[in-house]
User: Fold this.
Amino acid sequence: MTRPEPWLDSAMDIAQRVGNADFDWDAFDSAAYFEHNYGTMRGDDERIIEIVADFFQTYRRTHSARAIDVGAGANLYPALTMLPLAAEVILYERAFTNRQWLNAQIERPHASWWQFWSHMNAGRSAYQPIKEPFDLLSRRARVVKGNIFSLQPGQFDIGTMFFVAESITTRNDEFVRATQSFVNSLVPRGSFAAAFMRDSSGYRVGGRSFPACSVDERDVRQALLPVATDVRIQTVDSKDLRDGYCGMIVATGHKRT
Ligand SMILES: C[S@@+](CC[C@H](N)C(=O)[O-])C[C@H]1O[C@@H](n2cnc3c(N)ncnc32)[C@H](O)[C@@H]1O
Assistant:
């Protein structure tokens, strides 16, 4: 058997250490992440909510959709954007800590989630009939352990994926595979909204480092092209969250038939 050149060996070793499976997701500090990102609503969240809630409201055809938020983490607002359409919302998450956090928050949501709900509710007829959003969420949401790369195709009518595909790996091939796996989990013509950190170099949560794959609007479009139609990509200004990123990207669209 011929051995690879030594330089190739170490290059492969480095490449293998920066993938999704190389990080200890069960050590994700949900409380620290929540406090930093969603303890109060920022302007970038407001803009994302406007884009996503308008999109879902426009394509609302049902109250009985099967919905999924992939890599839900310590964030309830993607799930809230789907609430008027959904009979069931799966909060799909790899990390044990985040699943525990999600189960606790569904029962006793932090007060800040009302800021996010009020913003999506304002002036949107699809959201206004819901008077007790968190009671409804606790009845409709289910936290499920899962890996984005193992999602089965064609299972859900609508879906969200916020800051996941580009924030779980440094590898571009995994970013593409995660994005496509998310969209493929929808039925043909299923509606999706996805948010991405733009040009991210990684992030810290509670003193631990987590990876990122630096992507821009073109990368997002290219990843979506084979699996999605009606794709609309919008850039959201954001600079104060942390160092090492350059805005946010929101993509909406439908699963290809
Ligand atoms: C940057 S956080 C985003 C959390 C949340 N969606 C938000 O909007 O803030 C990335 C999330 O992806 C989860 N994750 C990491 N690898 C995953 C995988 N292979 N499958 C599903 N979720 C994963 C992490 O546990 C974490 O909750």
